[in-house]
Amino acid sequence: MTSDLRRQLILGAAKRCFARHGYAGTTTKSVAAAAAISEALLFKHFPSKAALYAEILAEECEADRELEFLLGQAPSTATLVKLIVGMVRHFLQIADGPNEEEEQRLRLMVTSHLDDGEFARLLYVKIAELIGDKFIASLQQAMAAGDAVWTADAPLDLFWFAHHTVLMAALTRFPATRCLSYGDGANLDRQLCQFILRGIGLTDAAIANHLDRELSQRPVEPVTTESA
Fold first, then answer.
1. Do 86 and 122 reside in the same domain of the chain?
2. Residues 68 and 167 in one domain
3. Residue 55 in contact with residue 42, Cβ under 8 Å?
4. 64 and 101 co-located in one domain
């Protein structure tokens, strides 16, 4: 069996284990058993449970239709606004929606910062590899078009500022009694997008030209067995 095929076998077994037992209830030993391999062989492909889970989440992100559509767009001011709006919607939907699996993943990301940070570090690398280049190229195009001003020596830092802003806003909505009341969801979408877009350097004119249009767009529908 080739290394790539073995890797996919391990990931398939891990997905089943995580789906059945959750992150805390899954061990590398149980994943190895499900894949019918030794734990030592598993560690040759994935050094830890956190690395295994981060790889699964990265694969799921790559298969997401809305993200795939976004990453297929040419770098531009409009693409930059789409990226920020998509990020804001993603986190707020997790906080407000009924998807317990997504909520647990977000909780795991947060608690990782308070623990050894391994899972968070791995996932940040995956996110940067997936989205970072598109964000930077779109910001550069926005500056070239006069729609943005330079506000950081490391443009990817602006992406993380945006990411952490909306992450913390989403966390205030997790408890049954919310930590803060920002108003209704539609206003929070807009306020967060405006705050982030100004923070990464977009001009008010560019925001006015693109944000309302993007907020009015419906997200790309996920593929279902009925529609496939």
1. yes
2. yes
3. no
4. yes
Backbone angles phi, psi at 170, to 5 degrees: -65, -40
182/73 same-domain check: yes
- Asked if 199 and 161 touch (Cβ cutoff 8 Å), the reply is yes
Tokens (6 digits) for 66: 């809305």
* pLDDT tens digits along 128-152: 999 999 999 999 999 999 999 988 8
177 shares its domain with 116:
yes
Residue identified by tokens 């308070």 is 114
Q: What confidence tens digit (pLDDT) does each residue in 43-76 have? A: 999 999 999 999 998 888 887 888 889 999 999 9
Tokens of 104: 């647990």
Let me know if 82 is exposed, middle or buried by CB neighbors in 10 A (0-12, 13-18, 19+): buried
Structural domain containing residue 18:
3-46
Q: What is the pTM of this model?
A: 0.84
What's the count of helices (H) and strands (E) in the chain, helices before strands? 12, 0
Name the domain count of the chain.
2
The tokens for 182 are 């920002």
CA distance linking residue 227 with residue 167, whole number of Å:
32
